[in-house]
Each structure stands twice: as structure tokens, then as C-alpha cells.
Amino acid sequence: MSTDKPAGVESYNATIERIENVADGLSIFFIRPDAPIPGQLPGHYVSIGLVDPTSQKLIRRPYSLSRSISPKQDPKLLELLVIRVPEGELTPILFEQREGDRIFVRPKMVGTYLLPELDTDTTMILLSTGTGVAPHMTMLEACVTTCKQVVMMECVRYGAELAYAEQIRSYAESHLNLTYITLVTREGGNKRYIQDYFRDGILVSEHGVSINADHTHVFACGNPAMIGIPKEDRKTGALSFETSGGLVEILIEQYGLTIHKPRVPGQIHYEKYW
Fold it and tell me: Is residue 114 part of a domain?
């Protein structure tokens, strides 16, 4: 009987140390690289990979790093909040893995969805759908420690998908500058979406949040329909929105914020998840 390993397995350089099941098809994977990966900043992501047992090819995908507030995690441990995509190439294989199994991790931190310089006048607004909360978990402590006001909003289908809700609510109890708002869309009740809070002024009127270009930063991660990413005309710089009423359009038109670019700093930062 052959004992040859599938091609690609020899590149495995990390171990799945722990798996926490959050809801059906939603888990937190704690992965320990054989060698620590330096240079991690809040908002970074890494690529992980597993060998497809059918094709024998190494399938890789990027995932934003997350970070539990409590209990404190070993900083050398990589934390990923992952939802199983039945038609996906990697997650069906990933969700078959067990604690102690080996996996590939690209030994490099990557990404531009990073915090700006924070100060005590900053209002930081962190908005997410689904697993888009992950990078915001890496940002939360730094924001709460420094900023005047921090708002964290999550929109999910079912309450069970709020992977870090208990941790965040406990953290908010001892940090009065943190407001945590959860929106659940498929369990009845008054259905609200993240965009509604900005279009209708709910965040200002009901939660006393001040939104202005001088002191506000908005980070949005998740469903492109929530974000409403525009297209920019290369010649004129004019923006057009395929999805009307998305967050970016509202923030520009109603609040005077601008999209952040490396050479032209702005207040709107986004990371789409598909």
C-alpha cells in the first residue's frame, strides 16, 4: 500500500489547535503556525489552504483575522471566523478537519483595511454583516482605548450567528464609550438594516452619535449590497452606484464623508467579502 502524501500536504506548516462551533456551519478556528508570523496589524488577513482530496491540489483562500476579547488569546495563535459555503472549494474541506489536524498558512500578513491614526476626538464606527465582524474584533480594543466614541454594529440573519456578542456586551459594560448594536433580519420583529441607521438618522437621534468628516471614521465589512461599492470614472473621478441606497452613497451624500484612498485619506473604509 502506498504511503505517499498527496501533493501539497508537504507545505502544511500549521496546526488547528482548537475549533469553537458557533452555529450550524459557523465556527471559529484557532490555528498555530509552526513559526510565528510577524507584523500583524488590526485588519490584516492571511491565506490558508488544504489539499482537495479529489484533485489533490492545494486550495487556498484568504480570511480576515479575528481576535477574542475574553479570554485573552496567545498572540501567536491565529483566529479565524469562518462560515461553511456548501458550493465553495475550501470550506467544505475545512469543516471536515478536527483539532490537531495540519493545514497550510501563508507566512505573511496582508491587507489595506487598517486603522488610521486614532486620537481622543475620534468617533469610530465599525459596521459588519455576517463574518465581516472578524477584522473589527482585532480593532476594537485599540479603538475603545483611544477614541472618544466607538459604535459597533452587526447585522446577521439569526441571533445564533453573533459569534462574539456575549464578549462584546460584557466589554461594553465596563467601557462606556462603546455602543454595541445588533440587527437580526430573519427572526421577526422590527427589521432594520445598517443602511437604515444612517439614511434615517437613527444612529444620531437614538444613540447620540456625532458623524462629521473632521472626527469620524466608518469601517464597513461584509455584504457588498450593504456597502454599496461605487464605480469611479477614471477620467472625471465621478462616482456611480449600481446598488442605490448603499452605505457608501449615504455617507457621501448625507454626511459629507469621502472614500479613503492611500494617497487621498478619507473617512470611509470598506472590505467586501465576495
Answer: no
Supply the mean pLDDT for the chain. 94
- Scanning the structure block, which residue is given the C-alpha cell 443602511? 195
Do 95 and 159 lie in a common domain? no
- 99 and 127, same structural domain? no
The span from the CA of 243 to the CA of 226, in Å, is 9
Query: With bands split at pLDDT 50, 70 and 90, how would you rate the model's confidence at 6?
Result: low
Cβ–Cβ contacts within 10 Å for residue 31, how many? 19
- The pLDDT score that the predictor gives to residue 5 is 56
User: Which CATH number belongs to the domain containing residue 186 in this structure?
Assistant: 3.40.50.80
For residues 154 and 133, the answer to whether their CB atoms sit within 8 Å is yes
pLDDT digits (tens, 9 = 90+) for 161-177: 999 999 999 999 999 99
Please give the Cα distance from 85 to 48 (Å, whole number): 15
**d(Cα 165, Cα 106) in Å, to the nearest integer?**
29
92 by Cβ neighbours in 10 Å (0-12 / 13-18 / 19+) ranks as middle
Which parts of the chain are beta strand (E)? 14-23, 26-33, 45-51, 58-66, 78-83, 102-105, 123-129, 149-156, 178-184, 216-222, 231-232, 239-240, 268-272
* Run of H or E including 205: helix 202-207
Domains contained in the chain, number: 2
For 33: left if phi > 0, alpha if psi spans -120 to 50, otherwise beta; the answer is: beta
What's the grid cell of residue 29? 478556528
CB 30 within 8 A of CB 89: no
Query: What pLDDT band is residue 132 in, cutting at 50, 70 and 90?
Result: very high
Same-domain check for residues 130 and 225: yes
Give the residue numbers spanning the domain of 54: 9-105
- This prediction has a pTM of 0.94
Side chain identity at residue 75, one-letter code: P
DSSP β-ladder status, 268-272 and 216-222: parallel
